[in-house]
Amino acid sequence: MIKGVLFDLDDTLYDSSSFADRARREAIKMMIDAGLKATEEEAYNVLQRIIKQKGSNYNKHFDDLVKAIMGHYEPKIITMGIITYHNVKFALLRPYPDTIKTLIALKKMGLKLGVITDGITIKQWEKLIRLGIVDFFDEVITSEEFGLGKPNKEFFEYGIKKMDLNPDEAVYVGDRVDKDIIPANDVGMHAVRILKGKYKNLDGNCAYEVNNLFEVVDIIKKLKKS
Fold it and tell me: Which N-terminal stretch is annotated as signal sequence (predicted)?
């Protein structure tokens, strides 16, 4: 019997990839206006290398960008990048069109809902609050809180325990095969891959794949009958 559904956050409940990319590009434009000595494409390529090397949760991307291009610290340019990035990001932050109706439908089915996400706890909570969906969730479990992130099985086991569920009572929905589907299956959860975001075209062997989040409702109805 299915009693709960846990979700990844980024690129599962909202379009993380495209909005973050656009915010970074707008930030670079303003940094160039403030004195950054590079073309937009040069600066963007350097920034992408920094993000790949340091990770998306690193909090000094723009500091490193300015130092890499100009060789020294320029607080005005860095601050212009940070402010522009956050202003654009929050202006564009919206759940997928089918996210809210899916969460409403699952709540009406009497299911517990949770989030298991990599990231800094405050940042992930901020996203949920700004998306307007925080009140749907019984638990929000982050890698910072636990001390390990995806694809560690222990992280998923911790999330299931915090939701007071057995693995076979839980469905996990995420966009990545390596970090979401495989570890969720390994701990005994039912895993659903949503084909959204930058990893949607990567191959993966998944029992359940959906293009629209609301399709998860039908999958859970079938699982509850089985």
Answer: none
- The number of beta carbons lying within 10 Å of the beta carbon of residue 67 is 15
Distances (CA, A) of 141 to 17, 117, 164, 170, 219: 21, 6, 13, 15, 24
Does the pLDDT value for residue 72 go beyond 90?
A: yes
CB atoms within 10 A of CB 205: 9
The pLDDT of residue 225 is: 76
Provide the residue ranges of all domains of the chain, joining segments of one domain with +.
4-15+94-225, 17-92
Segment (H or E) for 190: strand 190-194
- In CATH terms, are 4-15+94-225 and 17-92 the same topology? no
Q: What is the rounded distance in angstroms from the CA atom of residue 151 to the CA atom of residue 144?
A: 14
In CATH, what class is 17-92? Answer: mainly alpha
Distance separating alpha carbons of residues 158 and 161, to the nearest angstrom = 5
CA distance 226 to 131: 34
Alpha-carbon distance of 189 to 175, in angstroms, equals: 15
Give the architecture (CATH level 2) of 4-15+94-225: 3-Layer(aba) Sandwich (3.40)
Residues 118-150 have pLDDT tens digits of 999 998 999 999 999 999 999 999 999 999 999
What length does the chain have?
226
